[in-house]
Amino acid sequence: MAQSLESIGKFQFKIQHLLIIGVLILSFSTAFLIRSQGADYGFELNEFDPFFNFRATEYMVENGFSEYFEWHDDKSWYPEGRNVSATSQVMLHATTAITYQLFGGSSSLYDFTILFPVIFGSLTAIVVFALVRVIGGTTAGLFAAILYAVALPIILRGTIGWFKSEPLGLFYGILGLYLFLSGIKSENKKIAIAKLVGGGIVLGFGLSAWGGIQFFIIPLGMFILALPFVRKDHGFLIWSIPVFVTAFLLTASMFEFVGTKFVLGLGGFSLIVPTAFLISCIIIQKFSKDKNKTRNGLIFLAALIIGGSSLLVINAEAEILPLPQFRYLNAINPFLTTSNPLVDSVAEHATTTQSQSFFFHSILMIFAGLGIWIILSKKSEEKSYVKNDMIAFSLIMGLTGVYVSSAFVRLEVFASVALVILSSLGLSILTKEILGSKNLFEKFRTQNIIKISFLTIIVILLVIPLVYPNSNWITSGKAPPTILNGGSNWNMATNDWKESFEWIKSNTPEDSVVAAWWDYGYWITTMSDRATLADNFTGNHTRIEKIAQILLSTPDDAWMNLQDMGADYVLVFAVGQRIDQGSDQPVYLLSGGGDESKKQWFMRIAGEPVGKFVHPDGISGTDYFWNETLLGKLFPFSTLSYVNPRDTSTQSETFKMGLTPVYGKDIKYPTNGDGPFRFVYGSPSFVNNDRVLLGVFIYEVNDDYTPLSKTQN
Fold first, then answer.
1. Mean of the per-residue pLDDT values for the chain?
2. What is the model's pLDDT at position 26?
3. How far does Cα 407 stand from its chain's mean position?
4. Spatial distance between the Cα atoms of 612 and 624, rounded to a whole number of angstroms
5. What is the per-residue burial (b if ≥16 Cβ within 10 Å, else e) of 104-116?
6. In this predicted model, what pLDDT tens digit does every residue of 320-348 receive, in sequence order?
7. Are the CB atoms for 170 and 420 separated by under 8 Å?
8. In whole angstroms, what separates CA 495 from the centre of its chain?
9. Directed axis angle between helix 234-252 and helix 214-230, to 10°?
10. Which domain holds residue 86?
């Protein structure tokens, strides 16, 4: 029996509690350090959405909650604007505003939001400990905390500056699951009610913070369906489950964005129907003969599955119940395909490849499989390592987590959560089995040497993904904040974008409207305080399609369309590399993640034939692209020749397969020109002829220009 160190009432503080605290501190610290690596490049918000979330949180802090819910943002999607509370993750903004006012101290809100995802992402490792401890005991919980801290997909969706939905959404979602499972395991009815109501409320908060929490509803619904068959305390279940579901749905319905549509749609249906089944099944079993109870319940379940599947098929066509957005449907049915190139163009919507999946999870896959085998084995049942209901939850969570994550990369976080739970259970039971012998170190018997060797192998397997040279879970989580490298392929930081925003803010009228590809909308609005035609909310696909068409149209047609849309400036972004040896006339390769690389998506979104604008290599722009389109004319470059990068002596003045175009500087619309556009700004890497080009180019729309078509008329 462990020696007591201190008594606090009836609680005995023992040495084992120090170990638990130590492991949790280690998990939190490890998670925090790994997620903070990006700060080496600069202390900035990362990616695009965080800038809007910061701006919305700032508005809430400065104006209060009531004003926030009345806010119609007129700088977004000019001139229509945006109803913020109806189209945003309200709990993300509210939680941040409240915690900032409580703990922000003298720090700026911007700095606070940079640290926010790291703090909550690290705290979630402790919540995972609590969740898995309820499922499989303290040892399993400790394994889970450590594995969650280093799980790569979760790290990638929660690095420093990643002030997006996932870190807080997972925190609320996993906390809600913990309260739910803890509530249905509680023997005290008052405590059970408090936990079930709290779990429903917290899970509702999670849904408002991140719509992806909808995917926790799938295993919850399936688990509720299984409860009448894996639990005998039907009298408790018949009221406790409805309490939790009611608390969750009522909380979710309070929020305009996701919540209302979710409650009245397939999401709410996915919990209401299983709850109704549970109540009905318990009643049927109560009035059935003992030998027929399970059979009658299973017949009823089979009828429900057949009827529910038929209703889903009918609803797919008739839409009796509101359907979630396509990306959520795609996760439920990975075989769905979209004909919308805008959806396909988003990198995080890409389908996960087998190599990516193995790299993300590798060792976790092995231990998760081991966990499934062990918790289902007869031996583990005899020793009651995991109760039947918790076995059911773990398996359902594991299978659904892996399933929904197969749709696209962003949802790999759910596979990670599922595999962490199963791996932790497997490792916990395996550890107890191996260390169960009291003679482990006595005389180093062959049996004990095997045990020690086996434990050593397990430790090595767990460490390999963290330290494997060149590419491992730790180094893969380190990258520059997007605003410092423009989302390019260059693992470096520059001030090109930041200085560009400062120029816009200082040198353009406050009521100016900037046209740019939607990727950069949140940046422009937040950092420059100027209105944009489109941003990352992508609430108007038609507008984005229109911008793509403008960029690929002739300059005169583009000028007329931009005039009609009220745009005062146009911004484009190009990435490249200077390849000359310090000559006075710099020569560039253009490629690496700017608009020069996105133009193929512009063509698909605009509905234009790709072959009209790029050569058969699918990359190099044709003469028509460079000479006849707005985008080609706004890039301050012209093709010099085509060369073989490995042998520059091989050159051609015209395109040939296998050769790469090189470019020289060429500003087609000079500052003092009388054309439709005037070049007013080039970012530092362009002006200074830096080795790496992260060029932000801004053009003024010339209001005095008269298009040739009007002159002819």
1. 86
2. 94
3. 13
4. 7
5. beeeebbebbbbb
6. 556 555 555 555 555 555 555 655 555 55
7. no
8. 26
9. 170
10. 16-163
